[in-house]
Amino acid sequence: MTSDIPHPHVRFVDVVKEYPGRRRLFGLRAGSPDTAHRALDTVTFDIPRGSVLGVVGYSGAGKSTLVRLINALETPTSGSVVVDGTDLTRLGEARLQKVRRGSGMVFQHFNLFASRTVAGNVAYPLRVAGRPRAEVEARVAELLEFVGLADKARSYPSQLSGGQKQRVGIARALAGAPTLLLADEATSALDPETTAEILRLLTRINEEFGTTVVVITHEMAVVREICDSVVVMDGGRVVEHSSAYDVFAAPKTDAGRSFVATASKGAPTPEALQRLRERYPGTIVTVRIDDSFGSPDVTRILDRHGVTGTVVYGDVAEVQNRPLGTLTYELTGESEAVAAAAAALADGGRATTLAVAGADEVAA
Fold it and tell me: Using one digit for the tens of pLDDT, what is the confidence trace for 258-280?
C-alpha cells in the first residue's frame, strides 16, 4: 500500500467536502429541501512523491472535487489536505496562490485561448507571474521542443489536432516547473492512438522530471498503461487504494471489479462461450496468467500430457511492467489426457474448465 511510504507529496486525512443544499444556495423559503451534497466522505490516503496515481470512479464519485482540493481551488469542510508538508486548510489566500503555482493542471477539453498562438498559450502563466520577457521566450521554446510542437509556435489552437492541443495544454501546465501535475480526464476526448501518445508524454514527464502525476479518469486502460497505484472512488469514498497491479489482479469491491472488467476480457461470457463452442468443440479452459505463471507454463503442462492447446479468447497485458490477464484455451486430445491436463492447470485455483468436449452443458 502506498500509504505506508513516508513523506508523501500529498496527504488526505479524514477529508469531508460538502456543498450546501438548495435552500442555503438559492435563498429559498424555509420549507424547501435543504439536503447538503457530500462530495467527499472521510477520505484518507497518501500520494507518494514522484509516483503516478490513477483516481478512478464514475460520474459523481468525487474525482474532480478531489483534484480541486489538491490544487487549493476548494477547501475541505473538515479534515486536512497536506501538500509538501503544508496543511492547506491553515493557509490564507496569499499563501494558497503560491501553493497553486507548485501544481500544473491538464484539462479534458484543453482550455486554450483561441485568440492566442501556441507560444502565447504556453507563455500566459509565466507572463501573469511577471517573468522577464527573455526568460519567458526561452522557457516557451524549451517546452514546445519537449512536447514536439516547436514548429507550431505561431499556430493558433483552431489549426491544431486534438492531440496537439493537449500537448499545448501540457506544455502550459509545465511552464512554472511544477512538482505536481494533475490530469483531469486528459485523454477522454482523444482517439486511442493519440491517447497512447499523451500517456507516453505523461510518463516521460514523471520519469525525467520526477514530477508527481495524478491522473483522474474513468478509463482503466489509462491506469493500466501508466499508473503505479490506484484509488477507486464510489459515492465520495475511497473504496480501494493499492498498487495498480494488485487492483487489476484482485479487485476487492464491486466498483473495482466493474472498472477492471472494462479493461480486461477475463473469462468469456456465457454468450461468448456458446459462440466459441460452435467453432471449438474441444474442452474449453480459462487460465489466469501473471508473472508467476505464463503461457510457456501452460504449454509445458499440456505437452506433458500429450494435449494440444489453442488460444481462443482472452488477453494478457502489462501492468507495472508485469504480465497479467487470462487466456482461454481449447484443449484437444485423448479424453483422459485432456481431463488430466485440465486438472493440472486448475491446481491452486489458477484455471477453470468452462466446457467439456462432447458435453451438452457447461462444466460445473
Answer: 999 888 888 899 999 999 999 99
Q: Which three cell numbers stand for residue 212?
A: 508527481
Using only the alpha carbons of the chain, give its radius of gyration: 25
Residues 231-254: pLDDT tens digits? 999 999 999 999 999 999 999 999
Residues 183 and 254 in one domain: yes
What whole-number distance in Å separates Cα of residue 168 and Cα of residue 302? 52
Closest alpha carbon to 106 in 186, 191, 201: 186
Q: How far apart are CA 108 and CA 62, in angstroms?
A: 16
Specify the DSSP element, H or E, that contains 246.
Answer: helix 244-249
Q: How far apart are CA 140 and CA 150, in angstroms?
A: 9
Max CA-CA distance within the chain? 80
Residue 112 half-sphere exposure toward CB, CA atoms < 13 A: 30
The backbone torsions φ and ψ at residue 49, rounded to the nearest 5 degrees and listed phi first, read -65, 135
Q: Are 226 and 337 part of one and the same domain?
A: no
Residue 259 belongs to domain spanning: 10-102+178-263
17 and 98 belong to one structural domain = yes
Query: Quick check: 99 and 91 in contact, CB under 8 A?
Result: yes
- The count of residues in the chain is 364
CB-CB neighbours of 98 under 10 Å: 11
pTM exceeds 0.70, yes or no: yes
Domain closes at, from 243, 263, 283: 263
